Amino acid sequence: MVALGMAAIAIASFASSASAQLLLEKIKNGETIRIGFSNEIPWAYPGEDNVPLGFVNAMTLDILKKLGATKVEPVVTEWGSLIPGLQAGRFDIISAGMFILPERCPNVLFTEPLGKFADALLVPKGNPERLHSFEDVRDKGVTLVTATGWDTVIVAKKVGIPDDKIMQVAGAAEVVQAVKAGRAGAGGIDYFTVKKFADKDDSIELADPYSPPVKPGYPAFGFLPNQQADVHAVNVVLKDYIGSDEMMASVSKYGYTKTNLPDGTKASELCKR
């Protein structure tokens, strides 16, 4: 548990809530707010004793504090379990940096974007298959590895990469390992995450040049569809917070820069793409 403005931490509980309250109600009642995220460096990940780290978690703690929350409980789960976990009441907010996608919008009510990020194609050193796009992966029959629940799975299928050529693993570290071990010829992953791996490992690199199959991704906080009032309250706070000195002080240590700030694209637009 994180006491906002204090250092108290406790390991998360996964007990389902039989009658989940809305976020603002729980804050008003002084209850603990549970934030759900996966192990995705530098977006959102657990530190020692499950303390929530990563730039999205840093933003989450700032916003919740502004809304009046005093206690936060981190709930760490696999990426593919984030939406089911939210629906099951295991946590109140998805703070993992989930991209706003039309396929997700029926099940998740997103806030306005927290940033803008491009994807990348991870390949073995020297790019032996000469892969510069998802179309190259498709046409050359190469196996693409990505993580279960990532938007990359949806994109790969739309491009026409066969299901048996899409390897799904738990997260970013597993994507990197699959490419390094030769179990996949390429990895579909966001640039912000994978560059840190590639910079430290001479056996892998990012395809360059690279023609991404989709426009940049826009991460946001995720809520249940009936939490319109909560999302509105968060959006009101985000309006002055995004790009502020306070925000940049919280996120800059994770590599988030002003180039990653959202460009004005609205969540409603992204849900219709």
Topology:
Elements: E1 2-3, H1 23-28, E2 33-37, E3 45-46, E4 52-53, H2 55-67, E5 71-76, H3 82-87, E6 93-99, E7 109-110, E8 119-124, H4 134-139, E9 144-147, H5 151-159, E10 166-169, H6 172-180, E11 186-190, H7 191-200, E12 204-206, E13 219-223, H8 228-241, H9 245-251, H10 267-272
Parallel strand pairs: 2-5, 2-6, 9-10, 9-11
Antiparallel strand pairs: 1-5, 3-4, 6-13, 7-13, 8-11, 8-12
Helix pairs in contact: 2-8
Quickly describe the structure.
The protein has 273 residues and is of the alpha/beta class.
Structure description:
This protein is an alpha/beta fold and 273 residues long. 32% of the residues lie in helices and 19% in strands. It has ten helices and 13 strands. Strands 1-5-2-6-13-7 form a six-stranded mixed sheet. The protein has a five-stranded mixed sheet with strand order 10-9-11-8-12, with helices on both faces. The chain has a two-stranded antiparallel sheet with strand order 3-4. Strand 3 (45-46) and strand 4 (52-53) form a beta hairpin. Helix 2 crosses helix 8. The longest helix is centred in the C-terminal third of the chain and has 14 residues, at 228-241. Residues 5-19 have low confidence and may be disordered.
